[in-house]
Every structure is written in structure tokens, then in C-alpha cells.
Amino acid sequence: MNVTIYHNPACGTSRNALAMIRNAGIEPEVVEYLKNPPSREQLAKMIADAGLTVRGAIREKGTPYAELGLDNPDLSDEELLEAMLKDPILINRPFVVTPMGTRLARPSEVVLDILPDTHKGPFAKEDGEQVLDSDGKRLV
Q1: Which residue, 137, 130, 134, 109, is CA-closest to 121?
Q2: b/e map 19-44, b = 16+ CB within 10 Å
Q3: What is the pLDDT of residues 33-52, one digit of tens each?
């Protein structure tokens, strides 16, 4: 199965989503989007395919969101996309794309919605929260 994760290795949610993908026996294409941001077309498609608005895909915490005035409700989707592409830290993460769908995996266990049921045993997130039981079945 072809899986792509737009990943930030400094983000615990992103690391947890990546670990759940690997727990399903899949080695995804890992795109460190801060170094290699998606194209405008890719980003717009991921947002739409995930069922989000452009504004809903912007990361506010730990970014220059407020300083750039991106909280202005009059900004168009094109202006918001431009800001995200200019400063990729504004792209919320992790986006995961699979043949079963696209999700912004926040919380990280949302990624399970678009993965096959091939998980190998239990899985707990970095904070210890158990997500899969000993049979690889979803708990949350």
C-alpha cells in the first residue's frame, strides 16, 4: 500500500502517526514538509480530500500565524495557501495520504481510519496512551 506522511520529526503527534503506520506493516514515504513542502496543488488537494477548509488546515500554535495577521477572516483561501507555502510551519501536521483516504492525523489515531487492519499487536502512543490492544484492535 502506498502511504505518504507529511511529517515533522519534532512533533509527537506526527511521530505517533508514523509509528502507527509502521505498526500496520507499512513503510510510508516520509516527506519532511518543512524541508520539502508540497506544491500548491498538492496542498490544496490534501486539504480538500481530508474534508477540511484551508483555514482548518493552518497551524496556529508555535507559528507566526498571529504576527502575519492570518486570523483576519477576510483573507481568501488563496492568500492562506500562499502563506502556508511561504512558511510551511503553518501547515498543520501530519497529513497522511493513502488509497483509503487522506486525513490530518490530529489526534494521531485518526490515521487508523485510512489504514488496513494489519496492525501487529498492541500500540501505545509516546505518552503511554494505549491505542491498539494485544490483538492489534483499536481501543480509541
Answers
A1: 134
A2: bbbebbebebebbebbeebbeeebbb
A3: 999 999 999 999 999 999 99
Task: Find the catalytic residue in 3, 11, 57, 97.
Answer: 11
Contact status, residue 120 vs residue 136, Cβ threshold 8 Å: yes
Q: What residue numbers bound the domain in which 25 lies?
A: 1-33+93-140
- Are 69 and 101 part of one and the same domain? no
* β partners of residue 123: 132
**Do 29 and 71 belong together in one domain?**
no
Q: What is the pTM of this model?
A: 0.94
**30 is known as an active-site residue:** no
Dihedral over alpha carbons 74, 77, 81, 83 (to 10 degrees): -10
Q: Which residue has the cell 500548491?
A: 40
Cell numbers at 25, concatenated: 506493516
Segment 82-128, tens digit of pLDDT:
999 999 999 999 999 999 999 999 999 999 999 999 988 899 999 99
